Amino acid sequence: MGRLIIVSNRVQPTNPDDGGGSQGGLSVALSAALRETGGIWFGWSGNVTEHFTGGIHFEKSGDITTAIVDLEAKDVEEYYSGYANCTIWPLFHYRLDLAHYDRAFANGYERVNQRLAETLIPLVEQDDLVWVNDYHLMPLGDHIRKLGRRNRLGFFLHIPWPPMRLLLSLPSHRQLVELLLAYDVVGFQADDWLQSFLDYLRVQFGLEMDEDGRVAWNGRTVQLVVCPVGLDAEEFKAISLSRAAQTVHKSMVKSAAGRTMIIGVDRLDHSKGVQERFQAYERLLSTHPELHEQIYLLQISPPSRDELGQYQEIRSGLEALSGHINGAYASPRWVPIRYVNQAYDRATLAGIYRAARVGLVTPLRDGMNIVAKEYVAAQDSDDPGVLILSRFAGAAAQLTEALLVNPYSSEEVSEAIAQALAMPRPERQRRWQQLNDIVTSQDAGWWCKIFVSFLIGSPR
Known about the structure:
Blueprint: E1 4-10, H1 25-37, E2 39-49, E3 57-61, E4 64-72, H2 73-92, H3 103-120, E5 129-133, H4 140-146, E6 153-156, H5 164-167, H6 173-180, E7 185-188, H7 191-205, E8 214-217, E9 220-226, H8 233-240, H9 243-256, E10 260-265, H10 274-287, E11 295-300, H11 309-329, E12 337-340, H12 346-355, E13 358-361, H13 370-378, E14 386-390, E15 403-405, H14 410-422, H15 425-441, H16 444-456
Parallel strand pairs: 1-2, 1-5, 2-4, 5-6, 6-7, 7-9, 10-11, 10-13, 11-12, 13-14, 14-15
Antiparallel strand pairs: 3-4, 8-9
Helix pairs in contact: 1-16, 2-3, 3-4, 8-12, 8-13, 9-12, 10-11, 10-14, 12-13
């Protein structure tokens, strides 16, 4: 086996000394995976250049080399803001009403993937394994094949795969699936997403998966796997016990003034269900007046893709709804919702998680949701909080001892919050222990080893 080359849209390596910054779940997981194996992490820098040159900026940290390129403004508009985030993202999260189809977007998506493939090729040696990540880069493997490389190629999808009836609305749906069949291994977060992919293959291609999870296509064999992404659990636990996290924890306990905190941490996105969460919380307040001035919801929602109008609308809507709830229920001594629009580093988040009696993770649809696992990892084993988790998050298949809810039902979510607040310590400890066992054993290193073993061709 040669080196592991990981490719993702953005490259944001974690510096272990800085608490991880404000990275998303994908970046944290890939950083942890590369620390296990060493290798190269290739992708977009996040910067814009006047003309794309294919020039690579290298940086080395330990055994990890990052290799990043700048994109043109048109590339970012059509490939990233356009096709990836206005077409694929809403469609794959079951929001057909928000998906925007534009031929220029599709052309930009294809153009950038070809450019990235051509830039990557000189870095790839004969025995290297190439592991491509997420929806931005589905065509990359096919471009690598067309450039003559025969390396083992893997692709992992970090978001849901939609049901066939939704995917058929994409003008180039068949071409997109054929592009994925250029990889040797295609991985999904949960069995639901793999089954949706298989349904499409059966109906549109007449293909079946064998008992080992393989599909034969054009003289090649494609391995399909379910391999849920994990958290860098031990590192996050260590962060939660750091001086910085403990300082935050103490300040949160002090600011609570004896009240019980409920925590939500989500990017501003339609798929995260924050508006539905606020409505469920309002229902809790209306049906449980005895909880007034005893609890509060801290919702942290960092800005996401602010350049897109629909995300600005989400922010405005949440600000209006939180203001309405606070106006209806607040007293001179108490504000029911603390709503914050900024990102925090991992140490700060770990301290906040540890201070929260309830972790409210209720996306309408999510590939995995690393926040749920972070909340579990940060808890005090002697007096842990309770995780409330959407049934429609990929993490629900693993974290079965959470209180699983339908995020569309404000009644169900509000009842789960009440149940969590009243849950006795022995039950909280029992549930947390089982959740923690999963988060710790099926961590980012486990995820990396499982996927790479399939990529090598000798699955564990």
